[in-house]
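Per your request, structure below.
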């Protein structure tokens, strides 16, 4: 009988206390246009319209104040790696996305910056082989308004210590004749 009381008390404590049991689902990012580790359609590349893909955000943690997104390509050719910070091309950096955002419509988001010094999303345009495009979503416990952000280093510095959860998905795309062609 005492064993059952302990089980019942533990269950009640888990239901009442947010620090015991009942963990919220993990943050998620997905796209209706391609699966995680799947081929991105050409319309999100320099071979097509070059618009941002539709993205869906779900399971946003309750204490989230804002979201940030980093889209990066670590597979750039060696001869270009020295020209970009960290040897990774940043296709899109966007921050202060509303905490209740469900994502972005295809071609519907113009905010943010990219490594080419242009506003918004920079389309996939690999010159050599199939590349991986990492879409990294961050749930933050604060808004970054008022913080000067000119590049990924600035964004990462502003987010440091404020990331509640992170989610990631990968899209693949490559030039004609490569295994990662998105056409």
């Amino acid at each position: 009988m005492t064993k059952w009381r302990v089980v019942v008390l533990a269950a009640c404590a888990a239901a009442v206390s947010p620090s015991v049991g009942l963990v919220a689902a993990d943050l998620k990012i997905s796209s209706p246009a391609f699966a995680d580790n799947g081929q991105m359609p050409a319309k999100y590349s320099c071979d097509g319209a070059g618009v941002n893909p539709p993205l869906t955000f779900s399971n946003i943690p309750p204490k989230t104040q804002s979201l940030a997104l980093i889209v990066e390509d670590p597979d750039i050719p060696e001869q270009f790696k020295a020209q970009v910070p960290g040897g990774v091309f940043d296709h899109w950096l966007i921050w202060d996305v509303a905490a209740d955002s469900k994502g972005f419509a295809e071609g519907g988001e113009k905010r943010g910056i990219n490594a080419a010094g242009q506003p918004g999303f920079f389309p996939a345009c690999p010159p050599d082989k199939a590349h991986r495009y990492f879409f990294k979503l961050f749930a933050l416990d604060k808004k970054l308004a008022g913080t000067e952000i000119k590049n990924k280093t600035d964004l990462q510095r502003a987010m440091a210590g404020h990331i509640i959860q992170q989610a990631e998905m990968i899209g693949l795309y490559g030039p004609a004749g490569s295994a990662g062609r998105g056409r």
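The radius of gyration is 20 Å.

Regards,
D.
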